[in-house]
Amino acid sequence: MFFAEITLKAQFYDIDPMDVVWHGNYARFLEQARCELLDKIGYNYHQMKESGYAWPIVDMRIKYVRPIRFGQEFTVKATIVAFENGLKIDYRLRDRTSGEVLTKARTFQVPVKIETGELCIESPAALVDRLKAPA
User: Which of 43, 84, 112, 121 is the most exposed place for a label (fewest CB within 10 A)?
Assistant: First the structure.
């Protein structure tokens, strides 16, 4: 399995009037972990573009389990769970100290040929070759 994990700390600018992280900030947290993961496999957004593909997110699901509060440190783990017909990544946000699950999420990205705008049913070799296990 391919995964990456980052540690973040909830900042004042992340907090809403209810004294918890505003729900819209979670997409940014997922993006930070996703970029770390894509860097790890050598296929981040620059490499995607160079290979001729854009990878828009077409589905994002977030389950808020426990609130994240100002100053709280948490980890975001991003794990690739499918890649042959798009890029499906699962995320777990956990309290850094207790390990308690705070949020569960999933994103699904699809390859689109930049030149034509055509949606591809199968992921291009530029991604698949990086992730296929050796025989």
Answer: 121
